[in-house]
């Protein structure tokens, strides 16, 4: 790939150097929202031979789309927007990226200094606008030939090393004066021959960079170089413990985690984001088990916990871990961010999850004598989980509803497909009721917002190129309607299973116990019924749509048929399942009551 040096204006030079350097740093996708002030950046991406380009009219959705792309590819993804409120619309996605450890390169165009804070159109103070939610913020001055390109390249590399290389977003704010388009020459420029000579002189101090394919400054960041001493690990492993697996990378080696659990003789508790929820070695229905008297008694006997990955879905489990008096609490996580709601962690192992678990497994070779201990300690957890599974099977609904979807959707997923779980009630229904091994699960649980879920899913599909199923609630769906434009572009099957319970079903859980006038307040101000369906939205965006609003056993057969057909054809399909308001919360309440009787 040859880097060209003939540009009509300085904005084009800086933008092209910036985009080329990001390419060399590993950025392969760039998501663009239309805008005039960002024209130099957009043209630089459009003219780049290697960069894959994605365009969307809504910056909020575009930010989440980029987030999904970065999740699926494991690579940093760039975003380009114009100035003003376009920048602010990226904030929700950037917060989620920061909290989830996802690298984004957010490139925002800006007005020059003389147009800030003076009433100029579409001009706001964008410096540091994302605050604490980026790993680094690089504020570039207006392009100027008096500033060396060596400075520009070195600044980009250093900011990237502080942010994206550590799994955090990077904000690059680019001030531009007119002219903004590559076919517009600078007002003060001399004849073309002189301009060409000036460009050659300007590029002369980065000739080595132009001739290479490497970043201007390469940063080699050290990984975790040592673990606690063998004796410290073996002392930790000697006792009644748990392994709790939270959110781990999609490609995590779950076999190593399962083997570590077996070697230690500790029960394996798996979150729905763990890529091993329902794994044969895992305790079934751990959330409900903890709600039972027998299960609670077992959990309270634990002395130590090894948590692998953070952000647990189960509030009950998270609260137990945060409040229990542990002799020792170790955590393995790719990033050093604080994930310790009870402030009880004693050891943090930061680095690649697979590498750390393999090293811990090697240090556990002398613990094979613990097999007998395993029978005495881990087996009761597994046995009680199995009893719960049998009880839930007996109470599995005979008609299509939220509980049935939570329990059975995993069984219907095509081989090799992925599942994106929407926030609020859908992810909890799967966490509580599903017992299938779910091994390719995406979520947005950094902040657990309901916004941008369809856009993130569309980004995951684009990066993954596998069939994808999104389980989403109606409020989340309505919140992100614009992103159906992104979803419809999928080249592989993308099935949106929409649970329409006419409002925020989760609030039937959170407002449980309210009486009198408060019942109506909870209904009007929290559940917020809307009386809408997705039919006309699907028509607007040209997406295949099917609705199931009947009860009875035939509704399950109907869903299975439509779901199978949708999973076998390219493109997006919406299957809307109408369920009675409050039914999902009631099924959770009944399951907890049943568990407490065991």
TrEMBL record:
Q: What is its EC number?
A: 2.2.1.9
Q: Which reaction does it catalyse?
A: isochorismate + 2-oxoglutarate + H(+) = 5-enolpyruvoyl-6-hydroxy-2-succinyl-cyclohex-3-ene-1-carboxylate + CO2
| Keyword Manganese (UniProt) | yes
Q: Which keywords fit this entry according to its UniProt record? A: Magnesium, Manganese, Menaquinone biosynthesis, Metal-binding, Thiamine pyrophosphate, Transferase
Q: In which pathway does it act?
A: Quinol/quinone metabolism; menaquinone biosynthesis; Quinol/quinone metabolism; 1,4-dihydroxy-2-naphthoate biosynthesis; 1,4-dihydroxy-2-naphthoate from chorismate: step 2/7
Domain called Menaquinone biosynthesis protein MenD middle: residue spans: 202-421
The protein's matches in NCBIfam families, at most eight in alphabetical order, are given as:
menD
**Name of the protein in its database record:** 2-succinyl-5-enolpyruvyl-6-hydroxy-3-cyclohexene-1-carboxylate synthase
Organism (species): Endozoicomonas elysicola
The gene is menD
């Amino acid at each position: 790939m040859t880097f060209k040096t003939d540009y009509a204006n300085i904005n084009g030079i800086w933008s092209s150097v910036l985009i080329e350097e990001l390419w060399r740093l590993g950025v392969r996708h760039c998501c663009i929202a239309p805008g005039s002030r960002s024209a130099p950046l957009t043209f630089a991406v459009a003219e780049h031979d290697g960069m894959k380009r994605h365009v969307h009219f809504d910056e909020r959705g575009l930010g989440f789309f980029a987030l999904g792309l970065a999740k699926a590819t494991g690579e940093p993804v760039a975003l380009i927007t114009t100035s003003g409120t376009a920048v602010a619309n990226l904030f929700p996605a950037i917060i989620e990226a920061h909290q989830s450890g996802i690298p984004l390169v957010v490139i925002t165009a800006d007005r020059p200094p003389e147009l800030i804070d003076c009433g100029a159109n579409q001009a706001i103070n964008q410096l540091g606008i994302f605050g604490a939610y980026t790993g680094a913020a690089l504020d570039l001055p207006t392009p100027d030939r008096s500033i060396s390109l060596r400075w520009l390249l070195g600044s980009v590399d250093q900011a990237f090393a502080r942010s994206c290389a550590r799994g955090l977003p990077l904000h690059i704010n680019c001030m531009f004066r007119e002219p903004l388009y590559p076919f517009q020459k600078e007002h003060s420029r001399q004849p073309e021959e002189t301009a060409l000579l000036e460009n050659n002189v300007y590029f002369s101090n980065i000739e080595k960079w132009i001739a290479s394919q490497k970043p201007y400054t390469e940063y080699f960041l050290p990984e975790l170089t040592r673990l606690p001493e063998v004796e410290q690990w073996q002392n930790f492993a000697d006792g009644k413990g748990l392994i709790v697996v939270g959110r781990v990378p999609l490609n995590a080696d779950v076999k190593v985690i399962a083997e570590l659990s077996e070697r230690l003789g500790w029960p394996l508790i798996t979150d729905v984001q763990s890529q091993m929820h329902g794994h044969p070695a895992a305790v079934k229905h751990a959330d409900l088990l903890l709600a039972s008297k027998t299960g609670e008694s077992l959990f309270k006997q634990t002395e130590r916990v090894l948590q692998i990955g953070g952000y647990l879905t189960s509030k009950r489990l998270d609260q137990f871990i945060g409040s229990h008096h542990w002799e020792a609490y170790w955590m393995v996580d790719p990033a050093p961010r604080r994930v310790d709601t009870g402030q009880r962690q004693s050891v943090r192992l930061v680095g690649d999850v697979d590498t750390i678990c393999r090293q811990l497994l090697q240090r556990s070779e002398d613990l094979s004598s613990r097999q007998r201990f395993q029978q005495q300690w881990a087996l009761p957890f597994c046995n009680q989980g199995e009893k719960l599974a049998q009880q839930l099977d007996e109470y599995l609904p005979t008609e299509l509803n939220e509980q049935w979807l939570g329990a059975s959707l995993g069984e219907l997923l095509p081989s090799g497909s992925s599942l994106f779980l929407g926030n609020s009630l859908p992810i909890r229904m799967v966490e509580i009721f599903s017992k299938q091994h779910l091994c390719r699960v995406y979520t947005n649980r950094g902040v657990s917002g309901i916004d941008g879920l369809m856009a993130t899913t569309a980004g995951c599909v684009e990066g993954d190129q596998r069939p994808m199923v999104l389980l989403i609630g109606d409020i989340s769906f309505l919140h992100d309607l614009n992103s159906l434009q992104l979803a419809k572009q999928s080249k592989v099957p993308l099935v949106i299973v929409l649970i329409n319970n006419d409002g925020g079903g989760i609030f039937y859980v959170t407002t449980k116990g309210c009486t009198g006038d408060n019942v109506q307040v909870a209904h009007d101000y929290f559940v917020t019924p809307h009386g809408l369906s997705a039919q006309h939205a699907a028509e607007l965006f040209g997406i295949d749509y099917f609705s199931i609003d009947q009860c009875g056993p035939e509704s399950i057969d109907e869903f299975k048929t439509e779901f199978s057909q949708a999973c076998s054809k390219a493109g997006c399909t919406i299957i809307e399942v109408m369920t009675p308001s409050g039914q999902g919360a009631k099924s959770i309440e009944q399951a907890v009551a049943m568990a407490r009787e065991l």
